[in-house]
Amino acid sequence: MFARQAFRSVQPLKNSVRHYATEPSKGGSSIPIYAGVAAAAALGGYYYISKQPSANDAPKPSQEQKVVPKDAGARQSLTFKGGDQGWISLKLDNVEEINHNTKRFRFELADKDDVSGLNIASALLTKYKGPEMEKAVIRPYTPVSDEDTQGYIDLVVKKYPNGPMSEHLHSMNPGQRLDFKGPIPKYPWEANKHNHIALLAGGTGITPMFQLTRAIFKNPDDKTKVTLVFGNISEQDILLKKEFEELENTYPNRFRAFYVLDNPPEGWTQGKGYITKELLKTVLPEPKSENIKVFVCGPPGLYKAISGTKKSPADQGELDGYLKELGYSKDQVYKF
Question: What is the tally of structural domains in the chain?
């Protein structure tokens, strides 16, 4: 019986306000739960040189993607093969403004028939070294284009003050090049690996969640149920909202999304403030449910409050925070 495991009414969302992100840390500073870079948190600082944030989300839904035909496997080539392949330089084809601080960057692959080589779930590393920089800055991004798309990859990047990679990307013009490496494997997915998954994302942590959700619902053999809880600062920060709403309308018994805003507009009827334990208790599949998985991705404040941080890309660390208090086990949670 799906009931609480899935999508019962969540009217209490309106009153779910617990500003834990503004509470001072032991060091006296405050940690906004949706500020910073999900990618940084997602890979646990993997390959990070600078502590400044960088981010990526998703392109406008109107963008069309050239998807590999089912009979094209023999002629396509994988751009990113992992291992000791090294860095690959890709040319920026075009740039599209998404909102006040976010742009989509389309990079050409070597051949129009090539595909990226990414699988579910994985990401790419980017590298840039300015003329006055002692060390190169390296940041991971999850492309928002489909893994079967031929000829290009799309990144969507938020610009942060003093964020060396995001500032560099936002200064790039078509024709310039950027170094990439990968794929960097995350959580290996296969159809029906879990009966029900929950995706807890803050800000730009939506990117790997989108990659996973897209793979599930494009596969007619995958019957996984999906619950998304997505926190942002304002409504304009909710990229991919149209795609998620379409999924919710198409698969009402398998997909449900809940949105929480720190600064909601007038008339906003969903969550206000931050993702709380009370909200999670209301909308997530119960910890005693059979074969569930909870995924977490966001900035440090979100990890600290919801799941505890992970030690490294290879070490998930101990489970802590709201999920532990609600009775979930370490094996039921994956931190991107």
Answer: 2
CA-based torsion, 90, 91, 94, 100: positive or negative: positive
Opening angle at CA 290, ends 287 and 296, nearest 5:
50
Place of tokens 């992970």: 310
Structural domain boundaries, residue 307: 3-36+187-335
* C-beta separation of 145 from 109 below 8 A: no
The dihedral over CA atoms of 302, 60, 90, 218, expressed in degrees to the nearest 10, equals: 80
Residues 158-198: pLDDT tens digits? 888 888 999 999 999 999 999 999 999 999 999 999 999 99
Q: Domain check: are 301 and 193 in the same one? A: yes
Give the 3-state DSSP-derived string for 89-157, with helices as H, strands as E and coil as C: EEEEEEEEEEECCEEEEEEECCCCCCECCCCCCEEEEEEECCCCCCCCEEEEECCCCCCCECCEEEEEE
CATH, residue 154: 2.40.30.10
Q: Which amino acid is at 329?
A: S
How many CB atoms within 10 Å of residue 329? 11
Torsion 109-116-180-93 (CA) sign: positive
Binding residues for FAD: 139-141, 156, 158, 165-166, 207
Residues 43-65 have pLDDT tens digits of 333 333 333 333 343 333 334 45
CB atoms within 10 A of CB 19: 13
Structural contact between residues 92 and 152, judged by C-beta atoms closer than 8 angstroms: no
Binding residues, as ranges, are 139-141, 156, 158, 165-166, 207
